[in-house]
Amino acid sequence: MRLQILDRDDCEIPIESDAVHVEEANRYRLLVRPADAATRAFLGAVELDRVGDVFPIPIDHWVGRTELRVESSDLRRILAVEVLPREEKLSEDLWLELLGDLETWLPGLTVGAEGGKKGEVGAAGTDRATPQLIVEALHPLFPALERAIRALLRAPREQLATVPDDISIRKIRRVEGRTLAWLGRHPEVGAWLDPWLESELQGEAPLVPVLRKEVGFDHPANEYVAWLVGRVQNTLRQTASRLEDAPKGQGVSADGELWCRSRAALLRDAAARLERIWKRGRLARVARRPLSEAALQVILDDPVYLRVHRLGRLFLDPRFMLSKEPSETAAAVRPSYTLYELWCFLEVARQLKQRLPEFDWRERNLGNLLTLTGSGTGASIRGEGASGRIVVDFNVSFSGYFARKGGARWSLSAERRPDIVVTWKPVEGDPTPASPSSEGAWISLDAKYRAGKSNLGQALESAHIYKDSLLYDGFGGRCRASVLLAPSRTADCEAWFSAEFFEEHREGVWQLRPGGGNDVAVADRIVEALGMSS
């Protein structure tokens, strides 16, 4: 099987040692030769559409590692795929540094992207879990759970039970007191025990009630495992249903919709496999009961039962559940431009903390950033000092003119949402030269994961709109400055990055990238733009 990957300019991408490197936000084509009618291709868990012998490979705004799998009627080949950031924006090393910063500041923030695996899975230090953990973190554990259940079913715990039964009097080999008492009450049956009388008796020997010992599987530990397996099946199916409903909400990209559908199919398949294994096993008819003290004693003593317990309980852990709230279910992807916006928000706050170390800094609602389809609104980092209060807000809303209803933030036109808003409020009675009324000031920062004159030229339109149309009552009304944050600067748009352009127009572009290397500290420019005396 020969595979070729072509970019949009029909240039072949080299495949070395079954590995290939491609760029984010690009389109590629996979050519398979020979290709029969049964040939299929998958990028991660998503099956690619087929056009003749060509499989288009759309790579959206995400970076990370995944695999490209090609299967035909008799052959199978797997390529390791590394999706790199666009070189004109951030190099791979700087992108890794950006992800490292985000995970340090707020663990779990970078998880996601269709197949992208850079960043840790988790939400430590927060009160909200990222919603796709059951799929990304737990689904890979399903084979281990399946093996543990199969091992348990091969030798389940047995329980000796006393079962009432009726047997022929001639088959009794051991007479218990209960049986003798019964025979005493039924002398006509006892006559069959007299060898002289027995020869004269006619018909079949009578049946005598006895207690028979029988080995069964109705052990409390087995009943608990049956309950646990049933709950895991239900959880997998419920999560699949919520993933299937997720694209109906807001904020789901094309990659996100594919992610949701493919992961839902994985979970339904896992639930079906689990059901088949259990129905064909020796415990299929065991009653289902929650964990009891008797069952717990077996689990603590038997490593086979303990492994099933530990793996199964993970699937029932509330931290790994998809929320029933629509705003927390409709997510599956962390696009690279979104990660850059989040990084800029946290980096601006970090620089301000260094610039104003005498301030008392507090964080509020950073867990909102982990709600992947939510806007992150409500997340803020604020510092209190002797001279006043500075607040860095993420993605706050400025209501449209006709919907403002007396709100402090409003727009002369439609609703607007700058990525970052920084406000400064001096203490009462301590006016600054820039804020003689002590009302304060605010500026708008918009993170744009773009590079080059054409891309940044289009993005500057938002800076114009924010500066001319947005008002913030209580902070001086119109914004003092409206600036774009970009990861790199190029010679064709150098003027937009210059201090002279910003001083003249109170607009422009500031370079902000991980690893330092920026011309001027953004925190210094923010302090100057707000007219702070510090």
Description:
The chain has 534 residues and is of the alpha+beta class. It has four domains: 2-84, Immunoglobulin-like (Sandwich), CATH 2.60.40.10; 133-152 and 219-329, no CATH class; 159-216, no CATH class; 336-530. It has helices at residues 92-105, 133-138, 142-154, 177-185, 187-190, 195-198, 220-245, 254-279, 293-301, 303-316, 326-329, 336-355, 453-469, 494-497, 499-505, 522-530, and strands spanning 2-6, 19-23, 26-33, 40-43, 46-47, 54-59, 64-71, 76-84, 159-168, 207-216, 360-364, 380-384, 388-394, 409-411, 420-426, 441-447, 470-472, 477-478, 482-486, 507-511. The strands form five sheets. Strands 11-12-13-15-16-19-20 form a seven-stranded mixed beta sheet, sandwiched between helices. It has a five-stranded mixed beta sheet with strand order 2-8-7-4-5. Strand 12 (380-384) and strand 13 (388-394) form a beta hairpin. The protein is elongated and about 130 Å long. Mean pLDDT is 78; it is low at 111-134 and 323-333.
Mean pLDDT: 78
User: What structural category do the secondary elements indicate?
Assistant: alpha+beta
Question: Any idea how many domains?
Answer: 4
Detail the poorly predicted runs: 111-134, 323-333
Strand order of the largest sheet: 11-12-13-15-16-19-20
Main beta sheet: strand number and arrangement?
Answer: 7 strands, mixed
Could you give the count of β-strands?
20
Q: How large a portion of the residues is in β-strands, by DSSP E? A: 15-25%
State the helical fraction: 25-40%
